[in-house]
Amino acid sequence: MRRFAGRTALVTGGAQGIGFAVAARLAQEGARVVVADRNATALEAAVGDLRARHPGDWIEAEVLDVTSAERVAAAVARVVRDAGRLDVLVNNAGVLRDGWIDQLTDDDWGTVLAVHLTGAFHCCRAAVPSMRAAGYGRIVNVSSRAWMGNPGQANYAAAKAGIVGLTRSLALELVRFGINVNAVAPGLIDTPMVRALQPKVRERLVAAQPGGRMGSAEEVAAAVAFLAAEEASFVTGQVLSVCGGKSLGMGGVA
Prior knowledge:
The structure is a single chain. The chain has 254 residues and is of the alpha/beta class. The chain has one domain (8-242): 3-Layer(aba) Sandwich (Rossmann fold). It is 46% helix and 17% strand. The chain has a seven-stranded parallel sheet with strand order 3-2-1-4-5-6-9, with helices on both faces. The two termini are 32 Å apart. 45% of the residues are buried.
């Protein structure tokens, strides 16, 4: 299925994990994909992988720090110039600086908010003018089940809750221009970050899942692809939980 044939997508934080899975899914379905990440080495490897999977398709790399408004604006301008349009924006860039509240430093707080929330704001602000001119756009923000609260993640939860608020506000602002804004809220997903946890911690988290398993990055990518597609034309301002039912009960760590 080539739902995104003729469409151009920009995916931030796309060098690994959920972001890479999203970029791969959109490329598989025919999109011209720009993969953005601040890790140039990982980005080169990711784009090389995607080009090998889809020879001849339009897949580009963009080294990008989303905390810089100027760099984001320049990157989006390049995408619009080179591809002629920007149809889909997926805000996935993120970082973790976990700790109990009395252990969090100002830098821990500021860095997480800057990358997740301010970075998404920068990207949305830069992308909207071209989408509005085209009368079409899909913005999908990657939040987290943690937006409802998580012990030891006050900074991360605040950033992800902020993304929900940003999503809902922009949905109301932009729907009249044919631009839909939604969010996905993944729970425990099998990513390099989760694999780096101590085995006992990982086992405890999996045991707390209603279905007894982690989700895959590809399952999150499938949800993003639905929200990014033309067929989701009457869906905006929503938060789609991809958490195996974990969000139905409070407590624990996502």
